[in-house]
Amino acid sequence: MANTKNFSLEGKVALITGASYGIGYAIAKALAGAGATIVFNDIKEELVQKGLEAYKADGIKAHGYVCDVTNEDAVNEFIAKVEKEVGNVDILVNNAGIIKRIPMHEMKASEFRQVIDVDLNAPFIVAKAVIPTMMKMGHGKIINICSMMSEFGRETVSAYAAAKGGLKMLTRNIASEYGAYNIQCNGIGPGYIATPQTAPLREKQPDGSRHPFDSFIISKTPAGRWGEADDLGGPAVFLASEASDFVNGQILYVDGGIQAYIGKQP
Ligand code: NAP
Ligand code: GCO
Known about the structure:
By secondary structure, this protein is of the alpha/beta class. The chain is 40% helix and 14% strand. The protein has 7 helices and 7 strands. The chain has helices at residues 22-33, 45-57, 72-85, 109-137, 158-178, 212-220, 233-240; strands at residues 13-17, 37-42, 63-66, 91-94, 140-145, 183-190, 251-254. The chain has a 7-stranded parallel β-sheet with strand order 3-2-1-4-5-6-7, with helices on both faces. Strand 5, helix 5 (158-178) and strand 6 form a beta-alpha-beta unit. Helix 1 packs across helix 7 and helix 3 packs parallel to helix 4. The mean pLDDT is 97. Residues 99, 101, 147-149, 154, 157, 160, 190-192, 197-198, 201 line the site of D-gluconic acid (GCO).
């Protein structure tokens, strides 16, 4: 029998930030399927409630909290509450994120800072809040949701690319600084995934045709489709489990092959 390491998450507490819906929800569902207890947050109470209903409908008893991940005091209170009410966080998925698609020369500095705040500063804040307990426990898994924009740029996403590029290096630095405590920190780099965040890029044109960007992504992806949030569940279970105990500081791209492909001849 091959000595395959354990993919089970039984007995583990997993915190997924911004997981009322979208990629965070799909990852939480997969981690729950592997046995983890799910904790999630959202900024708005009504979305936490909506998320709790969705988890319940999927047979998952999740714990939902209202917390703005950019607010360090609120995050520290949130983590203390989770540790008291649910248990120590064994697995952190820094998923919460925003994007603003604005040409850089038209973007206000305040808009740039807002994206950096949610997509880069917040993963630092939340990781910093859970690492001390992980150090005491002698184990921990941190998964940062990066992006193809951790590697590439494109028009209108300067702030997002800067944040996700920084998040790739924050991932590698946490791996370097805390690997000695048996804490593994890796990233997942989704390709183009069909969620509310990318809905504007897939909107049907007035004549009913595909959005040009939609056609572009389809032509650039060997899989010939956008990713689904559920496509990220398996990779997340792997990086959250003992099966990846010797994987550290890596970004696992789940992109349907888009980064390997020159693109279909028009
Ligand atoms: P989404 O549908 O826009 O969901 C983002 C989630 O983050 C929402 O639940 C949102 O809550 C929450 N959030 C935003 N700001 C927050 C804050 N300050 N505090 C707490 N929660 C906050 O996005 P998604 O497509 O699922 O993406 C999730 C992650 O994957 C993001 O980091 C994104 O950058 C990354 N990603 C997405 C794609 C893609 O193609 N979709 C590809 C690569 C990477 P509210 O609804 O209350 O704002
Ligand atoms: C965009 C998209 C992308 C995806 C994702 C790709 O406007 O280019 O939103 O940024 O969200 O990050 O990996």
